[in-house]
Structure formats: C-alpha cells, structure tokens
Amino acid sequence: MIEKSTNGTKSEDSEKISQQTDMEKVQDFQRKLYQKAKQEKGFRFYVLYDKVRSMSFLRESYRRVKAKKGSAGIDGTTFEAIEKEGTEQYLQTIQKELETRSYKPSPVLKVYIPKANGGKRPLGIPTIKDRIVQMSCKMVIEPIFEADFEDTSYGFRPKKSASQAITKIKENLQEGLTEIYDADIKSYFDTIPHDKLMIVISKRISDRNILHLIKMWLKSPKVENGKISGGKKNKVGTPQGGVISPLLANIYLNLVDKIVNKVGGSFKRIGIKIIRYADDFVLMGKEIPKEIIQRLKAILENMELELNETKSKKIKAKEDPAEFLGFTIRYDKDMYGRNMKYWNIMPSKKAEKKIRENISELLHKGNHYQPEKLVKELNAKIRGWLNYYTIPKVSYPAMSQRRLRFYLSTKLWRYYNRKSQRKSRLYRQNAFGKLVSKYKLIDPTKMLKLPTLVNA
User: Fold this and answer.
1) What is the pLDDT of residues 320-349, one digit of tens each?
2) Average pLDDT for 33-42
3) How far is CA 420 from CA 97, 161, 371, 373, 414, in A?
4) Under 8 Å CB-to-CB from 349, ≥6 apart: which residues?
5) Contact, 134 vs 243, CB < 8 A?
6) Which of 72, 79, 117, 131 has the fewest CB atoms within 10 Å, counting from its CB?
7) Average of per-residue pLDDT across 248-254
8) For the chain, what is the mean pLDDT?
9) Using 50, 70 and 90 to split pLDDT, how confident is the model at 452?
10) Whether 68 contacts 138, CB under 8 Å
C-alpha cells in the first residue's frame, strides 16, 4: 500500500520505529500515507485495517478521545472506570474484537444542546469504545482525503481554522468580490445519503474492513428517552457527535468544492470563489447571477441534498452586513473621519450574547466558588472567546471587548453583592479590578491574542 524506504538497513528502520512514541508512529504513518495519496490521485488504498487495530493507534486514539472530555455513552462507561480496571487491558479487548471481526458499535445516545437562536441541536454520543475505534479509523484514513481536499475548505481539518476562513473572506472582499451568497444546506448531517457517500469513499479506499466499519457507524441506531430509532434500515445521515462524522461530512461536500473550483467550470469562468467551513459556506464574486444559484441547487439536488432557500440569501456586502462563523462583516466609514471606508470584521451580536450567557451561567452555578476557582473558570471562557474573535490585522473586536469588560464589571459587582450576607472579601469593592490585579482575571480590553492554556 505504501512504498517502503530503501534507505538504511531493515534492522536500523526497526530500531528507529521501536523507539518512537505512539504519537510519532501515527504521525510518521500519516505523512507517508498523505504523500502517497498526493502523488497518485487515482490510487485506492487496500491495506489499512491492520493499523486501525494496532495497539499504537488504539493507545493514541484513547489519548485523543480522553483529551476531548466527552460524556459517557449509552453503556455508562466512563474514563475513570476504564482506568480503574486498566486502560491497556481495555484496549487489548477492543483490539481482540477488531482482530476477530466481532466488533459491533453500540447504539448512539441522542441528546439535544441549546443553540444561539434559542432552538436545540441534536447531538449523538457514541460510547467511549466506539469513539476510540472511530478515532483510530479517522487517524488512518484522514491523510488520504486531506490530500484530495480543496484549500477553500476550513472546517474540522488539521491546521485549518475559522480564523483562516475569515481571513480569506476579507482578502476576497478586498479583491472586489463583494457580492456574497450565504448558502445553508437543510439538515445536512441528517440527510447525507449513505450509498453515495460510500461510493465517494470507495474511490480512495478498497479495504473492505474499513468500509464495513464506516457502514456500521452510519447504520448505528439512536436511543432517545429509552426509545430506539434508525438502525440497518436507515439510509441517510451521519450522527452529529461521532468522532468520524465531520470527516465524512467533509468528504461528501468536497464534491461541491471541486465543482466550484474547477478550472473552466461555470463558477470559475466568472470568478466565483467558495469559502466553506463544514456545512456552512459562502460563494463570493463581483456578481452572483441567478444562473449560478440555480446551478448550485442542481448540484446539491444531484447529491440528494437540499438548499434551504429560507435561510440562504444573496448579500451586497458594501450595502448590507454579512454574518459568517460568528463574525459580522460590514463596510464601514473610517473611524477617524477620513473620506474612506474599510472592511470591519467583528464578533456578531449573537456571539456577544452567547459569551454573556456563558458567564452568567457560570456565576449562577459557582455561587460558592472561591476567587481562585472562579477566576480559573472565567479565564477559560474569556480566553477562548478572545482567541477566536481576535484575528490580527483582520478582525476589529475592540468595541466588543469593551462591552464584555463592562458586562463583567457589572455582573461581578452584583455577584459579590449577593454574597454580602456571608461577608465576602470582595463585597463593596471593585470586584472586577480586584480579581484582575490580585487573582489574574483576564481583562478583555487587552488586545493581544492570548495563549490557550490547559487547565488555565
């Protein structure tokens, strides 16, 4: 499947491999796989399953799954319970199931999480065991498809981010691509057709065991309030929450990216560009004629997907604001009164509301927290928000940061005022200022991009 290196002796290569950590072994294999896939666009990979069930991949998979700190699935098994019994033994049991082909995924626990618009988003929670196997499979096949993905796709990909997508949007605007079609695919994750998805995957992978794993995950039944739905009869959808689901979603929508970016195609001929983050994407051009939108609809219909025409809209960005990935994009007058305009990219009102709600929820939950613990929890939220919305030389979050600072100051004063009966040390003081100076609470008005720290 991958050409072996002829440099050095076999014993030297074996010794080098034996000294590698699990992560290094995975990364080394992924590099070779990516290079092979990049060099041979039509190559179908046929020996992959042995890596999925290898202990090096399973151990690294467990480490990555645990780092995400997800909840237990339908079986109730937690990381604590696994480690109490012995992680290595647990992984060996999984390996045995994969070796004997007796592995079968458990039903997915279906829950709902609140959305910014007040609605709820369905989320599937596989068991930890299934997440481990999915992660191992993902680590094996991802490099193959990464070699095929277009540069205009930014969501759930290694070394890609929302900030890069926003940066590219600004570059396109500055180049004069100021007409935007904000496209919304109706219930994308729930409507991906299994048969067509598997055809796309099999163009690159011929390993039957890998294909069988993916089919089983697609057919996994869901459990909601004790009731089972889906299963083998289910022909569409990838469960949101599954480790491998974002990759499968990207593999299928890569078809759209390739059509839009095709040299000589109807989109490329008139200068239309696409920026996609998972199932959220925009088309950008000097003008986006109706024919292009009809062409997009036809492409999606052929893929058995539906454009949500109620939510999808065309925007003249120089006249009306556009929103994408939590940012608002506006063409504003110069803040210093000069006779010029600039592209102003800032956190959206929904994004500001969301961080305030998160802070309010934390303060309500942490009514008995000591200042040190409260600051630790607040900093994690503030740091994540600032890091996401602060894109040097691209976004301008200063006003939002000042509003967040004012909200924190007011909210913390009320928080400690409620605690006055217990003689809180910060009662009747400038609680925000005190927490900043003494306990290192982050002041949102500091413009630098903060490092993301573990347990900070």
Assistant:
1) 999 999 999 999 987 777 778 999 999 999
2) 97
3) 59, 44, 14, 19, 10
4) 328
5) yes
6) 117
7) 98
8) 90
9) very low
10) no
Confidence class for position 456, pLDDT limits 50, 70, 90: very low
CA dist 49 to 52, 133, 380, Å? Answer: 5, 11, 39
Which residue's entry shows tokens 């983050």? Answer: 277
Nearest residue to 315 (alpha-carbon basis) of 340, 267, 351, 282: 282
The amino acid at residue 373 is K
Strands 108-114 and 120-125 turn out to be: antiparallel
Residue closest to 211 by CA, chosen among 224, 221, 200, 223 = 200
Label the pairing between strands 222-224 and 108-114. Answer: parallel
C-alpha neighbours within 13 Å on the C-beta side of residue 186:
11
Return all residues near 166 (Cβ < 8 A) that are at least 6 apart.
324, 325, 327, 345, 391, 394, 395
Please state the length of the chain: 456
**What does the block give as tokens for 126?**
């596989």
Cα(382)–Cα(404) distance, rounded to whole angstroms?
9
Q: Extract the tokens encoding 83.
A: 């480690």
Strands 322-324 and 313-316 turn out to be: unpaired
pLDDT digits (tens, 9 = 90+) for 146-164: 999 999 999 999 999 999 9
pLDDT score for 384: 95
Taking Cα atoms as reference points, which of 432, 411, 352 lies closest to residue 385?
352
- Residue carrying the six token digits 């927290």: 369
| Residue 392 pLDDT > 50 | yes
Distance CA 158, CA 14 (A): 28
pLDDT at residue 447, rounded to an integer: 54
